[in-house]
Amino acid sequence: MLLKLLFLVLLGQIRAKPVEDEPVCGYEACPATNFSTLNVHLIPHSHDDVGWLKTMDQYYFQDVQNVISTVIPALKQNPDRRFVQVETAFFKKWWEQQKDSVKQDVIKLVNNGQFEIINGAWSMNDEANVHYQFTIDQYTLGLRYLEDRLGKCSRPKVCWQIDPFGHSREQASISAQLGFDSVFFARLDYRDRINRLGTKTGDLIWRGSSNLGNSSDIFTSVMYNHYSAPAGFCFDIVCNDEPIIDDEESPDYNWKSRVEAFANFVREQASKYPTNNILVPMGDDFRYQAALNAYINTDRLIKGFELFPQTFEGKPIKLLYSTPTCYTKAVNDFVNSNNYKLQIKSDDFFPYADGVASLVVGYFTSRPASKRFVREANTMLQVAKQLAAVANLPYENENINSLKEAMGVLQHHDAITGTELIDVTHDYHRILHKGISDAVNAINPILSNLISGSDSLKLESCLLANVSVCLQAKADQFILTVYNPLSRVVSSPISIPVETENWKILDSNGDEVVYQVVPSITDFSTLVDETTSPNSLDFIAKDIPALGYKVYTFTKVATKPTKRITVGADGTTFEIDEVSGLLTSVTMNGVTLNVTQDFLVYKSGGRSQAYVFDPDGDPQRVASTVTVKKIEGDVYYGVVQEFSDWAKQIIKVYKNDSSYIEFDWVIGPLNIDDGGKEVISQFSTPLQTEGVFYTDSNGREILKRVRNQRPDYDYTDEQPIAGNYYPVTSKILIRDENLGVEMAILNDRAQGGSSVKDGQVELMVHRRIRSGDGFGLDEIEYGHGIVVRGKHFLVLGPVSGNGEKSLAAIERDVAQRKLLPPWVFITNQDVSGSKNLEYSSLKRPLPDNVQLLTLEPWSDGTLLVRLEHVLEKNEDENLSKEVTVDLSDLFVAFTVQELKETTLAGNIPIEENVRLHWPGSTNEAPPQAPRAPTDLTITLAPMQIRTFLATVTYNNL
Ligand SMILES: *[C@@H]1O[C@H](CO)[C@@H](O)[C@H](O)[C@H]1NC(C)=O
Ligand SMILES: *[C@@H]1O[C@H](CO)[C@@H](O)[C@H](O)[C@H]1NC(C)=O
Ligand SMILES: *[C@@H]1O[C@H](CO)[C@@H](O)[C@H](O)[C@H]1NC(C)=O
Ligand SMILES: *[C@@H]1O[C@H](CO)[C@@H](O)[C@H](O)[C@H]1NC(C)=O
Ligand SMILES: [Zn+2]
User: Fold this and answer.
1) Exposure check for the chain: N or C terminus, fewer CB within 10 A?
2) Can you give the pLDDT at residue 17?
3) 6 pLDDT exceeds 50?
4) Which residue minimizes the CA distance to atom 12 of ligand 1?
């Protein structure tokens, strides 16, 4: 008995602490390389999509569990063998099924560098449609999971984004800020690849930010061909390539000839790269399911190069089991000792064509409803994490983790992109829906306690308010709790489906709130199982406290109270042509401009599908006449436009907020008897834009685009439309430099967009395509093609702004408020006599140019806190300046005692973060002085994100 106890105690200790018999990992564990040989870095890897043709679970149980399970014993047999593990969503599933002895084996193999974690994020995220907040969160989740189980040697140094369809600059910046030293990918425009190989610039330095100086520089390596093993050298059971037969007696003996064939491939590749190192991926999708087979052959290949020596430009060719980390180190050693300056690139790798007329830009819009769902889930995730921090919940909260993991999965490059098969889409929706419900369950008691002092309030969310469904709002009385996840006070329009027209709304002070009720934009009853409400009620939730909420009470009344507050439109107006029914001009910020807006349809060409956009000719108008109806009310001025029975829109100017004009549209179902339709919202102006427009990179920095031009390679394309499509995660804008006037369109989900003609911008809002190759995009719900509802926000004015703020600063403000709009909870329970009908977690809001990007529990007594400066350095005279915030006496629920700065994912103390130096990469940003842990002030430069572990003590409330 005693022995058994002792055993358990020991086991407990082993579990708690990863084995550390002198771990030698990272660069120290790299195979020795030598300047006088050509080093061929063989990279055993398996590219495991977190859903695509199969659901995530199908892939795991049919494929991925075999990969990790067979790799581990194969690595134990030969200390030279390596494997790189990438997707943490799958690693978690595997790890949790293993017994302790296997776990210990894995830790040993991590600690000696054989089983190396690269990327380490929950999934290999897409780079076009993801917002940077999603990317940062999913790396944070993955890296934390790994480090908790595997220890420090699991910290990746490599961003391994081999499969996403084009690459964003923000991904490079985030990678650098995570402490990574390199980025690898395989997909770039085919002309760019040819050019880079020809000029030996496939290895380069990528400047991830135009604000952060060289702290965002990162070594980037473009793969030679694809991420597959060289043709003929897939030694996997799923391939039929010749194994290497080293038995000289055998009639099939082929050792020498296989070595020579491989050497020919190597020489070809080596002639295209700048140093004496090349990277050769040995793997592919879901490979290494019978890993031993692959390793035995690779062992033989390596040995073969010793027996039958091969050379390249007079140097011996040496094959090595290696990793991308070790390739990076070898290239770094070479460039430093030769003072060789790699090319420095400062734009991005969009758009991506994988062949002639094969513009992979369709996925910027594909599955638009899913793309919106992800945004909503993000808002809930931030709300949940904030409330968890306020309530001192532990990091390991199953319900909140469920949403974190769901969001991690959804960022995968076949999830948010919409390039997966339809059954897989449905599975993603299931995962996300479960994540949201779980998170709501986790925070319900917290909010209930804050509001009423007890657990008894059951707060629901109306996820289907967009299609006029909200069960609780059918009652004669209900309560809305409007929660604001931003760290500043905001006022926000709230829209809720209701049955009847007359209501009395009281805010948390008991003051009456103005509202307006109009018929629902369209009849949604065929889109849902639930019954829809005929009307939409809109009101402005005014001054919702930072990281806090306000409670509103709704009571149905017989007639509308007569009390009215009329709010002027503050110089923001628009005009509609009564004959055409279209928008004709917009006045904002002192500028009046002829702006027309219309919905147009591209007929899908033969190549259009989930990935590719291949329009057949110019777009045609949806309708030649548009019916319009003016809406009068106390909340907004507006018109309802009906383009056709499947295209409707309300244009609104909110009376309290003149900083944007809202376009609230409903598109669908699309009739595709003709093969396919791709619908755009197009804004046309007389602005002289000279081929230039601007789009954001993952919602963060803005990149300049020049029509029909690529910075890196000669571009002449026969596709004038698709070839100019870029991802628009948050905004697209055009500017007339002579007039000094700018117009920006912001969106509520990722979309593809372009400026195909001067003065014009378009955003693709919906696509439905019947296509033969399995990647058609025919989303059906309730018996017909899906309907999508969404919003665009137009900002117009002088570049210099409105006298208070630049136009860019106004756009940032709107973008933030639309990314993280308040979350609305509803209940039919009574809250009279409750304790807090209004609440803020902050004693004072943060400045307008700072956002509390993350607040979440991290470990006992510690919270993860991320602050960001939300402007770029040249955007606004005042707001772009450095800003300092003080975290002492800021939070209501707790007091910050100490702050320890870390890299972006929270896993590495900033002073432990040592990155490789690259010749030519020189810093322009001033070095930051080391901080004392008790220093609670944080200074942020433009676009800077700083991450801290905050030691806190909770206050008795
Ligand atoms: C480097 O490789 C060359 C050629 O194989 C060999 O002669 C030399 O000893 C090696 N140097 C080191 C330091 O390994
Ligand atoms: C704006 O449109 C009106 C009506 O079409 C036209 O008369 C006017 O010249 C236009 N203004 C500019 C600056 O293009
Ligand atoms: C309404 O929102 C839900 C949840 O985001 C989404 O699944 C649905 O497709 C949306 N409906 C429309 C018509 O956009
Ligand atoms: C950035 O510049 C500084 C100083 O010029 C240098 O020490 C550092 O190594 C550079 N960073 C990189 C990634 O090369
Ligand atoms: Zn993939």
Assistant:
1) N
2) 46
3) no
4) 34
| Mutation probe of ligand 2 site: the residue of 586, 594, 687, 741 with most atoms within 8 A of C-beta | 594
pLDDT of residue 930: 82
Give me ligand 5 centre to Cα 840, in Å.
43
3-state secondary structure 720-779: CCHHHCEEECCEEEEEECCCCEEEEEEECCCEEEECCCCCEEEEEEEEEECCCCCCCECC
- The CATH class given to the 850-954 domain equals mainly beta
C-beta 112 within 6 A of ligand 4: no
User: Are 16-345 and 850-954 equal in CATH topology?
Assistant: no
214 lines ligand 4 (CB under 6 A): yes
Per-residue model confidence (pLDDT) at position 566: 32
Q: Which of 569, 790, 511 is nearest to 668 (CA)?
A: 790
Q: Could you give the C-alpha distances from 954 to 403, 845, 863, 892, in angstroms and in order? A: 25, 20, 11, 9
Considering the segment(s) 573-799 as one domain, its CATH architecture is: Distorted Sandwich (2.70)
User: How many whole angstroms from 338 Cα to the centroid of ligand 4?
Assistant: 17
Centre of ligand 4 from the C-alpha of residue 206, in Å: 13
**Residue 15 pLDDT > 80, yes or no?**
no
CA 330 distance to own-chain centroid? 31
Catalytic residue, chosen from 48, 49, 126, 163, is 163
Q: Where are the domains of the chain?
A: 16-345, 365-565+821-840, 573-799, 850-954
Please say whether the structural domain 16-345 has been given the CATH code 3.30.70.270: no
Q: Which atom of ligand 1 is nearest to the CA of 37?
A: 2
Say what the pTM is.
0.88
pLDDT digits (tens, 9 = 90+) for 873-919: 999 999 999 999 999 999 999 999 999 999 999 999 999 999 999 99
Which ligand does the CA of 596 lie closest to?
Answer: 2
From ligand 2's centre to the CA of 594, what distance in Å?
Answer: 6
pLDDT above 80 (res 631): yes
Q: Are 398 and 435 in contact (CB under 8 A)?
A: no
Residue 163 among the catalytic residues:
yes
> d(Cα 71, Cα 287) in Å, to the nearest integer?
10
Relative to beta strand 315-321, strand 311-312 is antiparallel
Question: With 80 as the cut, is the pLDDT of residue 950 above it?
Answer: yes
Q: Looking at ligand 2, which atom is closest to the CA of residue 593? A: 13
* Topology annotation, domain 365-565+821-840: Immunoglobulin-like (2.60.40)
